[in-house]
Amino acid sequence: QEQVMPRDFVYVKEVIPDIVLEIRYAGENNFTGKPVNGYNKPVAILNKPTAKALAAVQEDLMEEGYCLKIFDAYRPQRAVNSFIAWSREPGDTIAKQDFYPNLQKKNLFNLGYIATKSGHSRGSTVDLTIIDAHTHKEMDMGGTYDFFGKISHHNTEDISKKQKANRAFLKRLMMKNGFRPYAEEWWHYTLRNEPYPNSYFDFPVE
Ligand SMILES: C[C@@H](N)C(=O)N[C@H](C)C(=O)O
Ligand SMILES: [Zn+2]
Question: Is it true that domain 9-191 has CATH number 3.30.1380.10?
Answer without folding.
Answer: yes
